[in-house]
What we know:
The protein has helices at 2-6, 10-22, 26-36, 122-128, 151-164, 201-209, 225-228, 232-235, 275-278, and strands spanning 47-49, 80-85, 90-92, 107-109, 112-116, 196-197, 261-267, 293-296, 312-315, 324-325, 329-331. It is of the alpha+beta class. The longest helix has 14 residues, at 151-164. The N and C termini lie close together (6 Å). The strands form three sheets. A five-stranded antiparallel sheet has the order 1-2-5-11-6. The chain has a four-stranded mixed sheet with strand order 9-8-7-10, with helices on one face. A two-stranded antiparallel sheet has the order 3-4.
Amino acid sequence: MQRYADDPDSGVHGSAEWALKQLRADDQIAEIRTAFSTGHVIGDRRWYLTKTGQSRHHSRSDASAAEPPAEPDENNTALTFAILDAGDEFLMGSPVSEPERYGKGEIRHRRRFAIGTHEITVAQFQAFRKQHDFDRTTAREPDAPANLITWYDAAAYCNWLSEQEGIPRDQWCYDPDQPFQERMSLLPDYLQRTGYRLPSEAEWEYACRAGTTTARYFGETETLLREYGWYTKTSGDKWMLPVGTLRPNGAGVFDMQGNVMEWCQDQGLYFDTDTERMGDKEQLSKLSTSSYRVLRGGSFYVNAVLVRSANRSTYQPDTRLVNVGFRVSRTLPPVPLTALPPAEGGSKF
C-alpha cells in the first residue's frame, strides 16, 4: 500500500497497483485513488491522477478542514498519468535485425510529456458521451477498454478532458470551434500546448519501450507475452480484459501491447519515404478519409507478430472497430509542474 501511494517512480506505482490487484485489494486502491485525484502532481511523484472521474468525493486539493475526509469510491474513474522525460534523443522504430520486422527507418523524439497508464475505459468514455454504442460482446465490463472509437471520437474526448480539468481554452490541443469530422484542421502548435491530446507516435513508442530496445518491453520472444499482453492466443479472439489486469512495463504503463489498438495523433507515413514529415513535430494537413492515422499496440484480435513495440497499423480516421480504442497524452513544461506540498509525514497509507 505504501509503495502504491507514496513511491514517486511511475514504474513502482504501476507494479504496486498490479500487485494489489492480485491481492484483491480493490477497496484500498479506491481509497488511495480518491485521495490522490487532484489533477496535479503531488510532491516529487512522476505520476498523478486527474480530478475528472472522482465522482462525488473531495480531493486533497479542494477539501476544506470542515468537511469529512473523502470516502473511497469504487467507481473512481480518474485517469492515472505517468510522467516521462525524453530529454535525450530517442530512436523510434526497429533495427534491421529484429525478427518479424517490416518497414524501414527510425525517427528522433525529445519531449517531456505525460501519458495515461491505462487505455480509456467504457466508464470513462461514457462520462463524456453516454450514448456511445460500444460493442458489449468484446467490451463486457465498465473497466474494459472503450471500443468502436474513431480518431475523431478520441480527439473530442481529449478536448472534453481538458475542459473538465480546468485547462485554459487557449491550451486545448484541438480547435473547439471546428467539428470533429473530415476536413478538420489541426492547430499549428498542438505539441506545445498543455491540454490533453492523443499521443504522438514517438511518444507512444517511448512510453511503450520504457528504456528497452527489444522487440517487446519484456524481451525478444513471445514466451512471456501472456503475462503482459492480451492477444489472440490468450483471448481466443473473444473479448478484452479490464485495463490493468496484466503486468505493466517498466514505466508503470499497462496494456501497451495487446487488448486494444490505440489511436495516435499522427498520419500514417512511411519512415523512409518522408523523413522530414515523420519528425516528431506537428503534422498540419487537414484530416480526410484518405489520410490514414496511426494505431499502435496490437490487440486481443491479432497474432504475436503484431504485438511488438515497433509495430504500426493505419486506418482511416472514421474507422470503428471492436479492437480499436485509445489512451491520452499531454505535453508538460520542461521543468516540473508546480507541485502541491506533500502531506506532513507522507500519506496515511
